[in-house]
């Protein structure tokens, strides 16, 4: 469903260790909003919910809810470091349009609810 690079998993493991809250999942989701209609959500969760798919990449456990799963199929999550800092990137083969700021997208089957940037 999703692919997580080793670099991204390493960064996530570091974040989990720094938080010091024990084992956690990383929830990957899609929500309505943003200029193009859909936005990504990444966050920590203590437990899987009913209907969540649990995936493991490089020792990190991820959760994807049923509604987000079709939109996230084939997504690649990476972490890129530059002289100005680092950040997670998400490449989605299902996205047919993105906004200028790069934080929202739409697919051929789901346009979400666009907002003003």
Automatic annotation (TrEMBL):
Q: Which Gene3D superfamilies match?
A: HesB-like domain (2.60.300.12)
Q: Which PROSITE patterns match?
A: HESB
The molecular function terms of the Gene Ontology recorded here are: 2 iron, 2 sulfur cluster binding; 4 iron, 4 sulfur cluster binding; iron ion binding
What are its GO biological-process terms? iron-sulfur cluster assembly
Where does the Core domain lie?
A: 2-102
User: What is the name of the protein in this document?
Assistant: Iron-sulfur cluster assembly accessory protein
Query: From what organism does this protein derive?
Result: Ectobacillus ponti
């Amino acid at each position: 469903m999703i692919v997580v690079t080793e670099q991204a998993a390493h960064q996530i493991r570091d974040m989990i260790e720094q938080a010091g809250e024990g084992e956690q999942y990383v929830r990957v989701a899609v929500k309505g909003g943003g200029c193009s209609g859909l936005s990504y959500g990444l966050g920590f969760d203590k437990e899987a919910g009913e209907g969540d798919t649990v995936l493991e990449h490089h020792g990190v456990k991820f959760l994807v809810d049923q509604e987000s799963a079709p939109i996230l199929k084939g997504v690649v999550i990476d972490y890129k470091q530059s002289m100005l800092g680092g950040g997670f990137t998400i490449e989605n083969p299902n996205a047919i349009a993105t906004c200028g700021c790069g934080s929202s997208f739409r697919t051929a089957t789901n346009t979400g609810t666009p907002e003003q940037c």
